[in-house]
Recover the amino acids of this structure.
């Protein structure tokens, strides 16, 4: 294990040991930055003993990742954060974001909790059907609920889009640093990640545009339903 490594230790749940992995970032000085759970979960720098809770510590290998200084810098940038969420921002999401730029949790995927929550074409069909087939007094309530769902989707997608834009710039910087260090292999890998993240940013931007269009359609339908 070394500075910038993504590491994990097994933790117990409901009295069962080794049930899930607790992830963090090795700072290379005997400390780890991770989502520490006390009364409130917070991103904190602790010693190895606090992180491991007496369990063995392992390294999570990532085939393509930021260089060590960037990984630790990213982890430090979130010290004090208190936005823990099991499904969208848990300890593995945090460590993966620091190491690779991807906020992912393989454990959730393995448990069947990887959710494709926002199906915009289906939402559009539902909105159109409500506008055509539902009585005005009922459609107003349904449209209001749909507006709420759109707001939730935008709230979730917007930071992902902003993050993807930032990651594009970061991977470009990693590629430049790799070239200066004579690491053409790392530079190529970083540029590959840059292209992938840029494509993701474009996809998210399209989704946001679709949601804005849906929002405008809903407002028009709401106005027509109110007049009817």
């Amino acid at each position: 294990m070394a500075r910038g490594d993504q590491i994990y230790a097994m933790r117990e749940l409901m009295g069962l040991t080794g049930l899930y992995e607790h992830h963090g970032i090795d700072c290379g000085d005997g400390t780890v930055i991770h989502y520490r759970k006390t009364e409130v979960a917070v991103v904190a720098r602790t010693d190895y003993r606090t992180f491991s809770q007496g369990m063995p510590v392992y390294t999570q290998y990532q085939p393509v990742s930021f260089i060590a200084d960037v990984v630790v810098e990213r982890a430090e940038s979130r010290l004090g954060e208190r936005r823990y969420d099991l499904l969208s921002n848990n300890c593995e999401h945090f460590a993966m974001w620091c190491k690779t730029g991807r906020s992912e949790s393989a454990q959730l995927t393995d448990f069947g909790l990887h959710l494709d929550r926002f199906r915009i074409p289906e939402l559009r069909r539902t909105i159109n059907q409500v506008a055509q087939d539902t009585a005005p007094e009922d459609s107003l309530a349904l449209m209001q609920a749909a507006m709420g769902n759109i707001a939730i989707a935008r709230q979730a997608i917007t930071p992902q889009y902003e993050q993807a834009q930032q990651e594009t710039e970061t991977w470009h910087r990693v590629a430049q640093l790799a070239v200066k260090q004579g690491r053409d292999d790392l530079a190529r890998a970083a540029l590959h990640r840059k292209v992938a993240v840029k494509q993701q940013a474009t996809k998210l931007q399209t989704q946001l545009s679709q949601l804005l269009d849906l929002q405008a359609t809903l407002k028009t339908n709401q106005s027509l339903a109110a007049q009817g």
Remarks:
- Residues 77 and 118 are 29 Å apart (CA to CA).
- The chain has seven helices and five strands.
- Confidence is low (pLDDT under 50) at residues 14-18, 111-119, 130-140.
- The two ends are 68 Å apart (CA to CA).
